[in-house]
Structures are given as C-alpha cells and as structure tokens.
Task: structure prediction
Amino acid sequence: MAPPPTLRRSLLVLALTAALMPAAGPLAGAATPTIRLDDLSQRPSVRPATFQVTTTVALGGLHWSHWGAPTATGSGTLRINTCRPNCATGRIRVLHGALLQVRGVRIDRDQRYYRQYRILDRAFTPSERATYTRWTDAYVPSDFR
Result:
C-alpha cells in the first residue's frame, strides 16, 4: 500500500532538505583564500607559469600541484646564466624538470603570499645545490616599495 500523497511530498521535501543542508552550512559561502606568489618580476599571481629568482636565474613552463596547500610544487625548466666570463656573454645552463617548492603564508596588504621557496634538481652542481636548495624568503609587493 502506497503512502498518501501528502506524506510522499513531506518525505520528498525532507530528503531534499537533508541533501542540501551541507551546501547551506556556514562554510558554503566561505571561499578558500587565494595564495599568490611574487618574484623579481613584481607580477604576483596564482600558479604562476614563470618564477624570476634573480636577473640571471628563472624558471619557466611551471606546472603546479597542490596549490593552496601548506607546500606546493611546480615543475618546469630552470635557466641559469653562468655569467662567465660576464653576464652579457655567459652561457645559459638549462635544466628541464627542475622543481620549485613554495611553503608558508605571509600576509601583505591584506593578500596571502607563499612565504618561502627553494629549487631542486638532480643535475645541480655542488655550488648550485648550496645556493638554491635552501629555503629562501619569497618576495611580497611591499618588498619593492
């Protein structure tokens, strides 16, 4: 025997309400705050395709994983100007598959930025390894004022 139409409607409304409750909860309207990354180019962005470390060192073609997590990792191509004999005529060392890791959060002008970075690559020379694999403070817009 089928339930009366009024009871069916009530059960349907109750089921729909229960299904929609989590979306209407306190976190429904709260967006995850955006985390940006700034570099020497002074163009902070979310999941940047490039990261300018210095005037002679940059990463390009970055593809990111876990952006917004405590640590995010981007994989791309690292270009290092050897500056030998000088930067104008130095050789460009290209390392494909270099990893850029970022971590921590720093607030600047009411915006969130990853606070530190490091670069990892199996083909680093000992000098490059000592320079790039340690955690280094990342830039925020106030650093350029």
